[in-house]
Amino acid sequence: MIRMVLLSLAFLGVTAALLVVQSGYTERRGSEGRAPEVTRASLLSETVGTPEARDTAPVTPEAMPSDVDRIVAQALAATPEPEPVPPTVLPEASPVLSPRGDLDDDALRQMTWATMARLNEAAGRSAAPGLPGSLLHTIVQRSLSGQAASKVAPETYEVQPGDSLAGIAKKIYGDINMSGPLFAANQQLLQRPDDLKAGQRLSLPRQ
Amino acid sequence: MIKGAGLAALTCLSATAIAADPTRISSGITSATVAIAGETSTISRDGAACPPACIQPMIAAEGIATIGELEVLAFLEGAVTNGTGLLLDTRLPGAYAAGTLPGAVNVPEPTLQGSNPYRSDLLSALGARGSDFSGAFELVLFAGGADGPEAGEGLRALLEAGYPAARLRYYRGGLAAWQALGLSVSAGQ
């Protein structure tokens, strides 16, 4: 009986300790890494308030950053808000309606993110992870904009004399284990994995 | 007050707009003629042409103060050092990297325009919270010189976005005037 009580007391103690450590961690992160613009309400209202965030189909690259913003903002919303600004000044939907012009391209997007990173640096603050201006956000934007080196492999490959599936996999992907996916992607051409003829065009699956 | 009043000067500054482009001096202005005591001389401009290097008016927009180098220095030592102000170089990143005013941050003018769908994020980085600009930075904008249109256009775009004019200032001389006075220039970060 006493053992049981001691055990449950110990369990409660550990749980309480973990909770204390956890809240201390978030508080620390909240006070150091928080940029003044990082409020959930403002971010959400901005992303919801801009027409392109609503109107664009969710798969277009323009819409995806907003989705990422929202998800990250929600994930980070648990962070305590030490900003003394009372909730009455929380902004309503942003009045800045940005009409789409000719400048809406990847270059403008990259320029904006780079500018924000510089502004945050100059302002002596580091944006919370994942929010605009942070390194993570920049990386996410870069990868979403499709300018990252995601296109490692070309779309098709012309079989050369003496090629084998494993050889092609090694040559294209640097990974001999890709010969399986390569065969699967070309089953309309190849009866067997060694059924290669010079001049065949193999379609290359994504790694 | 007026010395040399014997010169009974009749000054006639007429801007002649000729349809030929580029207009050289500024929008619609190719040359100016001045007549003093019967002698007429013509002012024209060599080198840079307008557009894009149009000589900018003194006032970028109503309510925005235009400042000179001493005010920029005071701004750098005051607001920028205290963390309440930012000196913005509105040129494109390449020009900024080649050389800029010490302490200036590069915010290219196209990113401030309403056509930039990510401008609200940028305004957040400048301290705006939606339509609330009470915590926003004081800004001084400049470009390559008095013939750099980026600063004025950036200021007007900020005004249109709701940025209070009282928090905006225009350093019209820009990098060219700064350098002409021998003031230090630093490489853009």
Automatic annotation (TrEMBL), chain A:
CDD domains linked to this entry: LysM
Domain LysM intervals: 155-204
SMART domains: LysM
Pfam family, one: LysM
Region (Disordered): 79-102
Residues spanning the membrane: none
InterPro entries per the UniProt record, alphabetical: LysM, LysM_dom_sf
This protein's name: LysM domain-containing protein
Species assigned in the record: Salipiger pallidus
Lineage, opening ranks: Bacteria, Pseudomonadati, Pseudomonadota, Alphaproteobacteria, Rhodobacterales
Automatic annotation (TrEMBL), chain B:
Stretches assigned to the Rhodanese domain: 81-187
Keyword Transport on entry: no
Signal peptide (from-to): 1-19
InterPro entries in UniProt: Rhodanese-like_dom (IPR001763), Rhodanese-like_dom_sf (IPR036873)
Domain of life according to the entry: Bacteria
Keywords: Signal
Protein name: Rhodanese domain-containing protein
